[in-house]
Amino acid sequence: MERHEVLVIGGGPAGAAAAIGLARRGRDVVLVERSPEWRWRACGVFTSPATVVALTRLGVGAADLGSLARPIPAMRVETPTGTRFRLTYGDDGSTRAAAVGLDRSRLDPHLLDLARGAGADVRTGVSVRRAAGGIATLAGGGEIQARVVVGADGLRSVVARDSGVVRRPPLGDRPALTFHVADPDPSAVRDARMIVFDGGYVGLAPVPGGRVNVGIVLASRSWRARLRADGAAVVAKAVMTAVPAAGDDPVPWAEPRICDAIEGAAPVGARVARRSGADWLLVGDAAGFLDPFTGEGLHRALRSAELAVEAVDRFLSGAPGALAAYDRRLIRRTRAKDAVSVLVQAFLEVPAAFDYAARRLAVRPAVRETMGLVIGDLIPASAALDPRFLVGLLRP
User: If we measure between CA atoms, which residue out of 231, 8, 46, 22 comes closest to residue 123?
Assistant: First the structure.
């Protein structure tokens, strides 16, 4: 049996960030990732400037960001009745950074390379069958024992499962589909689009490499039944065909060129009773994830990894309560944002209510700016729960 200080299970952004931070603090870190090489899977690509700042803290340089990220001035939200409003995420066109669409096929391997450079032992093509009691049993045979196991293994975390903390997702079993289509104008800087339709929504985010990322969330039972009956390709085509034309969006949505396989996630969310135990903790999606309309999963993944690095380092230095303190800190940090996300989802469930709120956001710049800053994790989410904000949003 191998023995190490820290075992990180999962090589996505959260796991890589945790390995980078702990290795830089001189800790003995092993990271295992089940895929032998990066492959496309359902994951987030659109994110706010806060994520760019977090990536910079990890050591992703400006030159690297130029190939990893494509600037996006705003997310334009569009309702079925034609109401539109732009969330700029704090970008005023001058000094503040824009949101970005990330190329995950380059970002994820780049972060693993940073982890290797920091001194972490990164092993790809290694699956974990069981993780309990500080011991990970590998699918190919062998065991790794660690003083702390970091579960960064996503929505179906083995660490969360074997620790008995998995609970039903807060928004049920709604599925999501993601894939890329070819971009006829890959050099253009333009808005991303979030298009709400009856029973779901679709996000369209330009990314590097001449592509646009498509993310479809199917919230209604009728769409989920259609997905089961007809399959992902038929449902994706139906959603894309209904995307309204826009002057700044050159993609022929009725007949786009799909660049990769349609990947799915169901449910697109995760909930856990706890995020840490005696010898383990969870980061990223494994620590809980809400529907991505306002979820900002990438920023949460990196921020949870930062908090985990501090907690694990303190624990290994002799602070027995450090892992439990991580759980409390993460709850405090995410509670208000989760409440905002649930509130937005409640409006989405009632199209007339969502359209009412959208019309107010479209004509009230100060309220709209606050909402964008909250969704982008640029100001505390409690600002969107302040009664004065809600009055400003909902008054006739």
Answer: 8
Tokens of 192: 């991303």
Residue 13's H or E segment, with its range, is: helix 13-24
Coil, strand or helix at 344: helix
Beta strands in 242-341 (DSSP E): 263-265, 271-272, 280-282
Q: Which one, of 298, 335, 340, lies nearest residue 99 by Cα? A: 298
d(CA 373, CA 21): 27
Residues of the chain where predicted confidence (pLDDT) is lower than 70: 91-97, 291-292, 294-295
Give me the residue spans of the domains in the chain.
2-72+100-170+268-339, 176-265
For 65, the 3-state DSSP assignment is helix
Per residue in 270-324, pLDDT tens?
899 999 999 999 999 999 987 667 667 899 999 999 999 999 999 999 999 999 9
pLDDT, position 94? 45
Beta partners for residue 176, in sequence order = 217, 265
CB hemisphere CA count around 228 (13 angstroms): 8
Q: What is d(CA 182, CA 239) in angstroms, rounded to the nearest whole number?
A: 17
Length of the chain: 396
* Phi, psi angle pair for 29, to nearest 5°: -120, 130
CB half-sphere exposure, 341, CA atoms < 13 A: 21
3-state secondary structure of 121: strand
Q: Please name the CATH architecture into which domain 2-72+100-170+268-339 falls.
A: 3-Layer(bba) Sandwich (3.50)
- Number of neighbouring beta carbons within 10 Å of residue 107: 25
Q: How far apart are CA 17 and CA 306, in angstroms?
A: 7
Residues 152, 19: Cα–Cα separation, whole Å? 10
**Between helices 232-241 and 221-230, what is the axis angle to 10°?**
130
| Domain 176-265, classified CATH 3.30.70, yes or no | yes
pLDDT at residue 95 in the model: 44
Q: 255, 236 in Cβ contact below 8 A? A: no
Q: How far apart are CA 200 and CA 13, in angstroms?
A: 27
Q: Output the CA–CA distances (angstroms, integers) from residue 128 to 92, 145, 157, 199, 278, in the order listed.
A: 46, 12, 10, 37, 20
What span, in angstroms and rounded, lies between the C-alpha atoms of 136 and 357? 48
